[in-house]
Amino acid sequence: MASADEQVKGDDAAGAAASVADVRELRQRSKPQKKPGTDAEEDNEAGRSPPGACCEVTDSIERVFESEPVPPWREQVTLRALVTSLFLAVLFSVIVMKLSLTTGIIPSLNVSAGLLGFFLLRVWTAAVKDPKRPFTRQENTVVQTCVVAAYGIAFSGGFGSYLFGMSETIASQAAEENNADNVKEPRLAWMIGFLFLVSFVGLFALVPLRKVMIIDYRLTYPSGTATAHLINGFHTPDGSERAKSQVRALAKCSVASFLWGFFQWFYTAGDDCGFGHFPALGLVAYQNRFYFDFSTTYIGAGMICPHIVNVSVLLGGILSWGVLWPLIAKKRGSWFDAELPDTSLEGMQGYRVFIAIAIILGDGLYKFAMVLFRTVASIAASIEKKKFFGALPVNSDDSKGPNPATATPPSFDDARRTDFFTKDQIPMRVAIGGYVVIAAVSVATVPRLIFPQVEWYHVLAVYLMAPVLAFCNAYGMGLTDWSLASTYGKLAIFTFGAWAGKSHSGVLVGLATCGIMMNIVSTAADLMQDFKTGYMTLASPRSMFISQVVGTAIGCVVGPSVFWLFYRAFAGVGTHKSAYPAPYALIYRNMAILGVDGFSKLPGNCLTLCCVFFVGAIAVNMAKDMVPEKVAKFIPLPMAMAIPFYIGPYFTIDMFLGSVILFAWEWVDKDQANAFAYAVASGLICGDGVWSLPQAFLSLFNVKPPICMKFLSRNLNDKVDGFIGTLS
User: Fold this and answer.
1) What is the SS3 assignment for 268?
2) How many CB atoms lie within 10 A of CB 469?
3) φ and ψ at 305, to 5 degrees?
């Protein structure tokens, strides 16, 4: 897919993009939140499917499966499940990597992973019949967990953000603090080693509290609950047929999307060529990055994301590239040197980068404060009820709780799920010992072997802080479905960058510690969400933990390998001329520079505008939370609006089109749209993502497209024709 910046020479292509955590937050904030213990949660626990679930079931899910034996945890983690997970991990890692290196908008692919895992294992079991090992929902859950853990590394590994932000490619665009001590070029060996050292610690951080979070606090984990409903629905008699129909829809759309990407490739022989640069709204709009680039990836993303997200990114594009940047451009020679190129941070680029950062930080600070407030309030309420950690059961010996006589009798589903969830325990010594050992190895090796600029006490400080922050993140995610991993990473950038200081490679220190922190808090929250899914599908906690470990290990190898393929196959990855500009990489590096350099290098009035937009992001969030729900649903999301501020609005048109398609489909046949829209959207994303692999190999072997389709103005076309005439 063509990048936003191929059509405007001289414009930098790094952009303010949303992380996985940010997109989850965007998706969740567009709908009413559910609190533990509310009717909404009881509906989930009772087994009533949410809108769009693949089939209707009885009020008790577990009654449907009561006659089916639950395999022991060793039989849930099967060879066929791991092979299927490996295949899907590569597929989804390619998709996530492509999205990370383009705009950074990564829709949730959990449902796609569960759906494709179901389909592939159904095919496997049909071809290789084994009556002793039928395909169960527990095995399906293992595949989904393993795949999500693996492709999660493609994002949390920082290939489109902090890790690539260390490179010379990104440092040269930042223009500040790009000396050798603040630069580390990507290499496959050290990237794999770094991820193996830091990605597993989070898996051990909160294991001792799994029963507290899932059973005693009854945290909802909306995404985990929805995935569990999906898997349970697949394995009911009616659900199996519906799942087959969904898979067929996904496969058809994947093939169509793949062929469309292949067709477009033939017309991209030069710069700014092809359908990806079609000036559908006119050449003036095209120069301001308003155009439709025929990307099935972002049409699919628009069908998955809520309507308010798609409207918000479009409004952000109009506000920035349609209004704000043209007005600031008129101040050349007054606010900044008129001779500066647009790529200079002391000119137009500075406004684009730092205003986008201000909105992201304002929105992130607000949601961090709100989740922290809700967490503290919930814990305070638990203390009043004498149900804090000291009294809460943390192992199977205390499964009845502190006062069973006054407790509400559990439903059949809850009783059965709790019984299976507390059977296979993960010993406390394994969790604590694993965390301590891996942390000790990281403290000893990360500064010595990977980042000499980072001191051992920096790494130690991260590991001492991480369990508390991981708990806050996992608890908040259970309440709201918002993962704040990227926010904690940004906190580490400013904290440790300032601690190290400008004279001691503060930029690289900030980026490296950001990576450690993000990996810990992200994997801890993801594991707890997987425990929720496993709890509702009767998958053993041990099988969930093992599949998460295996998936993380796969991701630590596959993620860097896929990034290396993109990095070597496509010219100029991370630059404005590339189809893969890695927008968030420059954002993260500039945050690190800001942490050690301060605001002295910003162009005129940039700091004032940053403050205005920072406060504005907080104000919009406050208004959204204070007004009635019927009004709040029409208020745009600041995080979504910030995304096109830097990279441009070209993808917002694709996403808005996806939203229009979904809206029309729901208007015509809402039930069909609820059942198949996600499969169709996932197919569009998967097909375009899969095309990236053969496209990369064609580039590696220097196979060039035969045609360049370019669009010129009438005057320029006359000049070109005249020049060609002189050659004949």
Assistant:
1) strand
2) 21
3) -70, 145
List the structure tokens of 285. Answer: 């709009």
Whether the model clears a pTM of 0.85, i.e. scores above it, the answer is no
Three-state SS annotation for 112-125? HHHHHHHHHHHHHH
332 phi, psi to nearest 5 deg? -55, 135
317 contacts 16 by C-beta, under 8 angstroms: no
Q: Which residue has the tokens 């980026």?
A: 511
CA dihedral 515, 371, 463, 152 (to 10 degrees): -40
* 395 CB burial (10 A radius; 0-12, 13-18, 19+): middle
pLDDT tens across 663-718, in order? 999 999 988 888 888 778 878 877 887 787 787 777 767 788 898 888 888 888 88
The closest of 489, 714, 660, 662 to 587, measured between CA atoms, is 489
Output the six-digit token pair for 35.
């609190």
The first and second tokens of residue 645, run together, are: 């501020």
Look up residue 123 and give its two tokens: 């095919």
**Token duo for residue 465:** 């802080």
Residue with tokens 């169960």: 136
Structure-block tokens of residue 454: 């980072």
Tokens of 210: 């799994």
Please give the DSSP secondary-structure letter assigned to residue 165: G
User: Distance from first CA to last CA of the chain, Å, rounded?
Assistant: 35
CA separation for the pair 539, 545 (Å, rounded): 10
Amino acid at site 608: T
Checking phi first, is residue 472 left (phi over 0); if not, alpha (psi -120 to 50) or beta? Answer: alpha
Distance (Å, whole) CA 624 – CA 721: 55
